[in-house]
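Reading a protein record of the kind used here takes only a little practice. The record below shows the convention in full:
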Amino acid sequence: MVVVQVIVGGLLVGAIYALFSAGLTLIWGMMNFINFAHGEFVMLGMYVALLVVTWLGGGPAVFSVAAACALFVLGVGIYLSLVREVIRGPMLAQILSTFGLALLLRYTAFFVFSANFVTLPQTSLTGTIELGGIFLPTAQLVAGAVAIVLTISLHVLLTHTAVGSKLLAVAEDPAAAMLMGIRPDRMQALAWGLSAAAAGIAGALLATAYPWSPSVGETFGLIAFVVVALGGFGSVLGSLYAGLIVGLIQEVSAFWLGAIYKDIVVYGLFVALLWLRPQGLLGKA
């Protein structure tokens, strides 16, 4: 039963990995743009949750929506003020600009919130649920379930709605999409907003179960890149599968080998898979 509990816990954590990685794969697949600040979006979502609970006394539903809205506005603002300009330049300009943005967001958070680890005050999700002899934290269970629903919803948005068709059309050929009456600039701004909002919600959900500091964005950013590459560039469904796999491997490795070895196992298997299948699980060759 302990092993089963570890497996279930790993899948729930992996679901949250999938959610914030889906936002990164949306940008990567649509614009071929590398966003090194994506982990900082997750970190900001955690602090939005903290502020909402501390200042307004809001519950999980309130701070999740607040994180989504705040990060959506931030994502659109970053696109309009920075990305729209550097995307026309060489790849090095894109890399350095988002890397600099990550440092700016991280050290601004250090200045505002200090380097101390913080935890979310008790909410309605505090406690444990027993399911068939398996004891799981309520926060972790709800966060994982919500993350799976939102990731699938993002996939449905892209594949079964008019807005999704416009986003995919711009990803395929911006010039042709413009001839069809689609404004690529507007769709790309929307993509950045959705990407940041997904990261913000994931951060708010993670905040219910884990302590954090401003440096946590670096860790989540690296995990997001692993999940996106493992699942296949541009595939939201691939991110879902890969996120569940990464979360499962981490938890099982921590249980059998020790917590300090879990990342070594994940990155080792990641490199081995890319050696055999460089396009990822659902990516095109």
